[in-house]
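ESCALATION

Customer reports they have been waiting on this structure for their group meeting. Please prioritize. Original submission:
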Amino acid sequence: MALLDFEDPGQLVAPALVVAFDGWVNAGNAGTAAAEHLIADAAIVGRFDADLLYDYRAVRPTVLFDEGVMADVEFPEAVIAHRRFGERDLLVITGTEPNWNWQRLGGEIANLATSLGIVDHISLGGIPWATPHTRLTSLIETASDRALLPDDADHPTGMLRAPGSVMSAIEWFVGEQGIPTHGFWARVPHYVGATYWPAAVALIERIGGHLSIAIPYGSLVDQAAEQRRRLDEILEEQPEIRAVVERLEAMSPEDQPSGEELAAEIERFLQQQGEDPPGP
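Update from on-call: job pushed to the front of the queue and completed.
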């Protein structure tokens, strides 16, 4: 059975592949919010076979009822969208993180990337972090080769072992084809349980700078500003949360988590998936 139904988008110019899935390594929905912004009016050129990717008992379809009558069943999905920014093409893969066939998925996407002449692969996501919302959102960067990271890049140091995501599998297979890969991971305040719009803004800004393209922000900046205003209001109403934020603001760079502490925080975040986290 074919894993992907793909429609050739035609001749591409310096195409880049952007990948973001919900679930793991997507704190604050940072990666998927940025990806959805990229494909707001894009053409869908590929759809993956959901039956080959998802365990519907773990990722259950949504059933819609209208006056007691079943109107629709919405299955989880993953798609590929194509959009051009200026003189450069982007292919964006996003959707619900698959449960099955990660290696096959990674291999097929890597083969597709090679056949389309993809010159850059970008993974997007968010990591829960001991950082306050009152600071600008910072990014952690990774790459398939240390030489691909800018000198001023904020990247993990030493050896870091952490649970992987389907994005890790895809990026590995794509990198094995000799295509440069990059990862941009927004630091999301660990006390924010909703979509964190400042992180989406930071990721869009970084993608644009990295690929040397102009990406309109649309309403993202206004959404980020409004969310920060609402979070400030919560601090005024809840002194215990304000105290937490003030402690985070007082932390120096030396107080930031180590690689082992980050891995432990990631594992805690993974265990909490599926719960209803607090947030504005």
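Sent to customer with the following note: Strands lie at 4-6, 16-21, 43-48, 62-66, 69-74, 78-85, 88-95, 120-129, 139-143, 181-189.
Escalation resolved.
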